[in-house]
Structure formats: C-alpha cells, structure tokens
Amino acid sequence: MPIDSRGAATRFAPLMTPAGTCIPTFYAATTFDGAAYETMFRDPPSKYGGYRRQLVEDRGVSVIAPKRTLRLVGFFTPELRGLGIPWEEMFQAHGSVYPFCRHLAGIAWRDNPDADGIVWSSVRDSAALAMLIFGDRLDPADFSVESVRMVETDPTLLDELSETAARCGSFIAR
User: Fold this and answer.
1) Measured torsion, CA atoms of residues 76, 77, 83, 88, in degrees rounded to the nearest 10
2) What backbone torsions phi and psi does residue 121 show, to the nearest 5 degrees?
3) Do 55 and 40 touch, CB atoms closer than 8 A?
4) Which residue of 1, 4, 101, 170 shows the fewest CB atoms closer than 10 Å?
C-alpha cells in the first residue's frame, strides 16, 4: 500500500480506485496552523513533549488559491449523521479509524464525479477547515501559487512553526 513521505498512511490517503489504482491527492487547510497541525503535527509529540527538528527541516509552506470555486463533499456533522456515522467516531485522533475513513473518501470520490475533493473541520485545529483534493480531477494549473517558503531557506518559518507547536503545549527541539 502506498504511504505518505513520512512512512504512514493518513486519515484519507492513500485513496484507491475500485481497480486498486492510487488516486493522487493532496491535503490543504484554510489556515497556517490548520495546515501545520494536519500535516507536520498530526502525530503526538515525543514522550518528552516535543517534535524532532528533523520533522520540519525539509518541509515548506505554500499558499495556494484555486482559480475557480472548488466543489467539495462535506464530511461535517449533518452529512455524517445522514450516513449514520457519529462525527466523534470518524474523527478520532488515532489511526484505528483511518481504513474506514479512506473507504468513505473513496465512496465520496466514486459517487461524486464532479467533486474536486472532500472537506471537514480540522480535528487538530477547530478554527480551520481541512481538505483532501482529488489530484485526478484538478491539475496544478487550476491553482495559483501565492507564496512558497521552505524551513531550510526561511528561518522565520521555523519560528512560526515553533509558535504553532507552542499553542498545543509542545515545541520543536532545536
């Protein structure tokens, strides 16, 4: 099974077609902190309460904007209730629910051929919306890139990520 670059399957990826082909996807969020919590800080910190610096050294932050209104399938409380799925069960913080979530995302992809992805309230930052974009339906050209910042070339980004980690009582070991 394909896995993310950090070696673990995520809540909604890898997303597979019924024939077993991997559907390209990417995660996005509506806020900086939401994106950081959904990607870099999604796993619990070390037993000492911090995240290893190696977690963020090769990471970056991009601000993108769709060139058209995205059509997203909502995974919010009303929609989940309509499917008979309690929100708190689907969005538990541990990976035991991930296979079911990937299955549900696959159903959303299959049953909504005009959908560009799915959207939900971020589990790790309730102030943000998180999205999984179906890469077989959108192309990079469908987005404008507003900015790209890399930790290795922009020292202020590491400071901002450290502030984000501190919001949840953690830190990045330097």
Assistant:
1) 110
2) -75, 125
3) yes
4) 1
CA–CA distances in Å: residue 64 to residues 27, 69, 86, 145, 157: 12, 13, 32, 5, 17
- 30: CB partners within 8 A, 6+ apart: 128, 129, 130
Q: Are 143 and 69 within 8 A, CB to CB?
A: no
List residues bridging with 25 in a β-sheet. Answer: 134
Q: Tell me, what's the pLDDT at 143? A: 95
- When the pLDDT of each residue in the chain is averaged and rounded to a whole number, the result is 89
37 token code pair: 């919590």
The amino acid that residue 62 corresponds to is S
pTM: 0.86
Cis peptide, bond prior to residue 14, ω within 30 of zero: yes
